Amino acid sequence: MEELAKSGRKLTDETRHRLAARLKNLDTPSVRPYPLSLEPDPIHPSSYYLAVDGLNHGRVAPLLLRLGLASSPASGLFPKSVLIGRMRPAGGREVVVNAVPFGPTDAEPLRTFHERVTKAFQPRPQGTQAALIVSGQDLAVTAPIAFEDFRRIQRDTGQNRAAFSSGLAPAEAAYLTVLWAATRAGWRDGYSLGVTGIPAGAESQAALEKLPGFSRYTVLANDLEEAAGLYDHLRRVKLGAMAGQTRGFDFELDFTGLALTAELLGETLQAWRAAGRPVSSIVPPADSDLEALSAAARQLNALLTLPGSIGLRAHGRGHRAVADPGPGELAELARD
Prior knowledge:
Elements: H1 2-7, H2 13-23, E1 31-40, E2 48-56, E3 59-69, E4 82-87, E5 95-101, H3 107-117, E6 132-135, H4 139-157, E7 162-167, H5 171-185, E8 192-198, H6 205-209, E9 216-220, H7 224-241, E10 250-254, H8 262-274, E11 281-283, H9 290-298, E12 303-307, E13 319-323, H10 329-333
Parallel strand pairs: 6-7, 6-13, 7-8, 8-9, 9-10, 10-11, 11-12, 12-13
Antiparallel strand pairs: 1-2, 2-3, 3-5, 4-5
Helix pairs in contact: 4-5, 8-9
């Protein structure tokens, strides 16, 4: 740690992977580290943050450790941190270790870490990049499994398919949970995080104002005029969250339960684009002509979002929505 800081070299994923390889050979019965989470302190370059699980008689406590030289000033970012211990690795300079709770429900330390230490793990717009969109009743279990699969897919294909979604009601909790999982997985390559089932009306505005960190919003298409108003409201919300700089987002229209033809879809997407509201993707009605809808959408740089059970090979590139995937399931779907 001290040598890295003195060298002036930037902490890279290569360095993190080397650390992970070394830790595999160490017996650490009281702690399970997540070495790919390692991040430097933004103020004191000789100090680092590391996500771990504290293990005590079968109980697991997710923690965020701050490891710093005793001579380094204490961080004011986490004033409620607890001193874990002091040590001299290999007889070197004294290192002080502090910890704060860092589980998926620890909102304050999670937000502090992801807003003031690093923004590398925050969601990003997906655009026209095909995705495997993961949802689940318990994202604290589902998301870590998904990130393992996403890393495997990226290694095997060179493609980033990482995406998640949540319904409107649990969205705030889902946001923190996915941030937590991305940190522990060390996933800095970007992923999309969406809110689904948003009613097309002014009643949704207050809820969306609380969700500026999401990168994809799926609005019900039963009233396109009201949906357009939500698009404009989201743009204002993003502008305010970035203090004058608009943060991009993907907008999806959900036509579930509606009648939709390829001609009507083309006209709708064209009109929205001409009005400065490009639609990134659509959820088509069940039993619709997917091939025709896909062709119409592609002409205007939009994709279809389909259930994971429906293959994409016959309908062109698009998103697949997958609920509660098991280990390896996403990697298998990525082959289609």
